[in-house]
């Protein structure tokens, strides 16, 4: 067993799963691969089983139904943590994330708790995206930064390396988001937990085969949840400020008596 596990969720990715698994295994000899398939009707799960039978570095976790990206990653994390992997990697199945970045990202994880592959830091870029997709992603990340008070440029990206201790410090049981907003949720929880988070530039390439899972419902879910989290954060800050101000007179009085 290697020390890093790359978790690859799949749903109807029969045209991509062979290539992405092969590229991932070639990219780094320190990684194993776990394909988490949500009962894909196109036969992706059966292809993943073939890959696992041919290579001991490949495993497959079958789920009975499509239950969201977040649910697939949480299942994969739990599987990897139970088996003692020291690093757990998020990566898409469609080839948009280049496995060739893995060696550098794993190296960064030696001194950081969470490594984010970022499209929106200097050196990062996207390929084959229409202008409105780039605008939506940049706008969503800007809104997340402002609403949540985080200094991360690509909180919605899904190419990441977590250390096992980092995942154990995050309250994974409390994560309610299951779509793409899961990425913002997990990043925010990592920062709230005081974890060391670093962004490294990557090139993101739009899928060549298959259909994107992005939809209007996913965008609306993300906007609603981030807004709620931002409001909750602001309420906590106001309550903390009020409590602090209430304590000031007694502190000053005690200081005066002591003098």
Structure description:
The structure is a single chain. The protein is of the alpha/beta class. The protein has helices at 17-27, 44-54, 69-82, 102-108, 131-148, 164-169, 181-192, 216-258, and strands at 4-10, 31-37, 58-62, 87-90, 114-118, 125-127, 160-163, 197-201, 203-205. It has one domain: Spore Coat Polysaccharide Biosynthesis Protein SpsA, Chain A (Alpha-Beta Complex). It is built from eight helices and nine strands. The chain has a seven-stranded mixed β-sheet with strand order 3-2-1-4-7-5-8, with helices on both faces. Strands 6-9 form a two-stranded parallel ribbon. The radius of gyration is 21 Å and the shape is globular. The N and C termini lie far apart (65 Å).
Strand content: 15-25%
Mean pLDDT value: 87
Strand order of the largest sheet: 3-2-1-4-7-5-8
Oligomeric nature of the chains: single chain
Radius of gyration: 21 Å
Overall CATH architecture? Alpha-Beta Complex
Reported by name, the CATH topology is Spore Coat Polysaccharide Biosynthesis Protein SpsA, Chain A
Tell me the total number of β-strands. Answer: 9
Overall geometric form = globular
Uncertain spans: 251-259
Specify the CATH class: Alpha Beta
